Amino acid sequence: MGIIQPTNKSVLALKGLHLYHTARSNCAARVRLLLEEKELAWTSHHIDLGKKENISEEYFGINPKGVVPTLVHDGEVVVESNDILVYLEENYPDPGFRDMPDSLQPEIDYWLQQSGDLHLPAIKTFQYYKINAALLPKTEEEEALYNKLQKDPDMAAFHSKHSQGKSFTEDDANGAIALLDAAFIMMNEAISDGGYIVGDAYTLADISWSPTITTLISGGFNFGPYPEVERWYETILERPQFQEAVIEWRKKATYAAGVDPTISGPAPATQN
Ligand SMILES: N[C@@H](CCC(=O)N[C@@H](CS)C(=O)NCC(=O)O)C(=O)O
Fold first, then answer.
1. Nearest CA to 30 among 185, 242, 193?
2. 70, part of any domain
3. Which residues span the domain enclosing 199?
């Protein structure tokens, strides 16, 4: 979606970079990671999904699907995490993570597209089946407000699957795992030259996908068949920027206690 016209006009006056985000959200974490990599100063507006802080007229007024993250930059409102990455690249090109030599940009864009397309049917479905549906039940009031505010049919259908005591089924989870396996077979192959997802350089492809690996590990996804992905993730884990933007923020989440995971670590809850 990229830049949108918000119905909540209060944000139009904001100056600088403001991020509406959640500590444990992998979509928000990829934006925090890029902000960290570019050493950009930003103001935090933490939205606690556990407390349903996203389910309000105000928040839907800056993010029509009621999800995190949302970036506000000098009053410009940008939604969809991978579009936010591209927006930041265009507005703060140095250091650059997309404008690569040798026409690598289409490949980077392919992985960004994959990360966006797989979020609802695969990543989010897997996490809700494993953890979040139980962790994020809505009260009747929250449910009614959500249904009133949510205009996106895919989001409404997704959340109706875990309403009124229902939950995601094993079939849902298996469908999600099949999609993820297909993506990780390709990613494992792409990384098998010992480098990053696209060639030898650390790019938006890595920035978009690495926080998602953290999230999937927390849900218990089996990365055993993807040793190159494991190796690559271990390398990314060593980046101080990743530690700050992803791991440290996950520790700040109040509603889900637990040790933060590494590729082989334990499995605390996550928000998606
Ligand atoms: N395609 C969106 C997905 C955003 C999304 O679903 N975010 C999750 C956290 S990772 C969220 O806000 N979930 C709350 C909800 O679905 O109500 C993006 O990339 O920004």
1. 242
2. no
3. 105-239
Distance 65 CA to ligand 1 centre (A): 8
The closest residue, in CA terms, to atom 17 on ligand 1 is 67
Residue at 46 is within a domain: no
In a domain, 69, yes or no: no
Instruction: Look at strands 17-21 and 70-73 and give their pairing.
Output: antiparallel
Residue range 98-138, pLDDT digits in tens: 988 777 899 999 999 999 999 999 999 999 999 888 888 89
What atom of ligand 1 comes closest to residue 67's alpha carbon? 12
Ligand 1 centre distance from Cα of residue 76 (Å): 20
**Helical H runs in 196-271?**
204-218, 227-237, 240-242, 249-252
Structurally, the chain folds into a number of domains equal to: 1
Tell me if the bond preceding 95 is cis, omega within 30° of 0: yes
What is the model's pTM?
Answer: 0.94
